[in-house]
Amino acid sequence: MASSQIIDLLKVELPVEQGASLVLTGDVKTGLVLVDVVNGFCTVGAGNLAPKVPDKQISGMVDETLRLATAFCESKWPVFAFLDCHHPDIPEHPYPPHCIAGTDETKLVPALQWLENEPNVTLRPKDCIDGYIGSTEKDGSNVFIDWVKTNHIKAILVVGICTDICVLDFVCSALSARNHGFLTPLEDVIVYSHACATFDLPIHVAQTIEGAMAHPQELMHHIGLYMAKGRGARVVSEVSFECMKNP
Ligand SMILES: [Zn+2]
Q: Model confidence over 70-108: pLDDT tens digits?
C-alpha cells in the first residue's frame, strides 16, 4: 500500500476533525505562541535539522505564522516566541547538534525577525524540547506562566515546528499546568494545524543513516495534531480576524 493511502486510512481511523475555524475578535484575550520558528528548523540548508530542500509544509507554516503575527502585532496583542538554543557542550539526544547559542540557527526566520523589535513580543530561548519546562528560571519562576498572568490571557493559539515534538510537548505541559491551576486565567489551548509543520525523514532515507528513526512528515504531523487533541487541545484548521465592533 502506498504511504499516501496509509495516511488517508489513518485520517479515517484517527480523525482529528479539524473542521473548526477560529475567529479572533479581541473579545477573548488571546495570546499567540510561536514554537521554534527559527532558521535551524525552517530555513533551507541552515543546519543539521533544517530542511535540505524547500519544504511546502514548513514554508506554509512560516507564511501562516507571519500572517497571524502581523495581525497580533497590529492589534498589540501578546505574542510569545520560543527560540531553540543550546549550549555547545550539552547535546540534545537523539538529535545531532543544532541551534547552538550565538548562531543564526537560533534566530527567528528572516520573515519574522522584525518581531524582535515589537513591544508586545516576548522572546524566550529554550534549551529543551518542552518550552513550558524551558521557561523555568533558576529561582523556580516561569517566564511563560508570568506572561499568561501579566497579560490576563484566556486562550493561547499555538503554532510552529515540530507538530509532534516541540509543539506537542509544550501543548501537553500547558494543558496539565492549566488543570493544575498554574495558569489562571488560561482556559483554552488551541493548535492551528496549517501554522504547524514537522520535518520529513522517509523510511528509505532513514535506513541509510545509522541510528536514524523514520519520520514521514504528513503522518507525523497528523499524529501530532491527534495527540494534542487527545490531551484536550482544540485543533482548528482556519483562523481569521474580525474587527471589534463598537457597542
Ligand atoms: Zn533543540
A: 999 999 999 999 999 999 999 998 899 999 999 999 999
Helices (H) and strands (E) in the chain, counts: 8, 8
Q: Which long-range contacts (CB under 8 A, 24 or more apart) does 170-177 make?
A: 170/33, 170/35, 170/82, 170/130, 170/131, 170/132, 171/228, 171/231, 171/233, 172/227, 172/228, 172/231, 173/130, 173/131, 173/132, 173/133, 174/132, 174/144, 175/231, 175/232, 175/233, 177/132, 177/145
Determine the distance separating the centroid of ligand 1 and the alpha carbon of 237, expressed in angstroms: 27
Tell me the CA–centroid distance for residue 85 and ligand 1, in Å.
Answer: 6
Query: What is the Å distance from ligand 1's center to 44 Cα?
Result: 17
Within a domain: 226: yes
Residue 247 placed within a domain: no
What is the tally of structural domains in the chain?
1
Domain around 27: 15-241
In a domain, residue 6? The reply is no
Q: What is the pLDDT of residues 136-148, one digit of tens each?
A: 999 999 999 999 9
